[in-house]
Amino acid sequence: MCTLEKRGNIFILTLTGNDEHRLNPTLIDSIRAALQRVRSQANGPSALITTAQGKFFSNGYDLAWALSDKSRLKFMSSKLRSLVSDLITLPMPTIAAVTGHASAAGFVLALSHDYILMRKNRGFLYMSELDIGYKVPAWFMVLLKCKAGSPAAWREVVLKAAKLRADVAVEMGIVDSAHDNPAETVVAAVKLGEDLVLRKWDGHVYGENRKTMLADVLAKLGFDETVEVGDNETPPSTTKHVSRL
């Protein structure tokens, strides 16, 4: 599911394996357990890096699991909102080293970090809901607006379902820097984490300031809103999403 490595005051959380790292309760619980370990093991100023093995950072919700029972989408939404809350309230800087595709809820997972670093030669950020026939949850949009200030960027992501490569995402202000390959992306993330740790900020104060900055997101996380099928009420094909990657 995931591993957690501690290098001094840098924590590296890695989604393991070569699958799509689709977000289901099992994977989300594994990530949340790792974040709890980060909280308990942090000793002084620290930073978290989240990355993934293989072609995908995360291909979003595990729709094959969720659509087998109508109650599962709400359950999975609740789990994801709890994970996002955990990241927003973590008392240290957080960095997503996106080394593969990050789609839909996987894109949201990346956006839930303070910084996003991304590889150039493969992978994209993709809010796929329009293409697969889902409505974008309001809290997804609030998070996007907090992280990307341009209405043009919102339109590209939500109303065009654009697949953003690293260089374009940097131009839009969604990604902080682009790197040649996965290894260089992680190395750059570690360097950024080390630079931030050297500032010796109080983690509690850092987390409280982030909570203030993202107060609109936290307020939306309290609503039991989930991804919904469009007006035709026909569940979208999960294979369509995969075939486009």
TrEMBL record:
It is an enzyme of class 5 (isomerase). It comes from the Eukaryota. Pathway: Lipid metabolism; fatty acid beta-oxidation. Gene3D superfamilies: 2-enoyl-CoA Hydratase, Chain A, domain 1. The keyword Lipid metabolism applies. Its EC number is 5.3.3.8. Belongs to the enoyl-CoA hydratase/isomerase family. PANTHER family: ENOYL-COA DELTA ISOMERASE 1, PEROXISOMAL, ENOYL-COA HYDRATASE-RELATED. This is Delta(3)-Delta(2)-enoyl-CoA isomerase. It comes from Ilex paraguariensis.
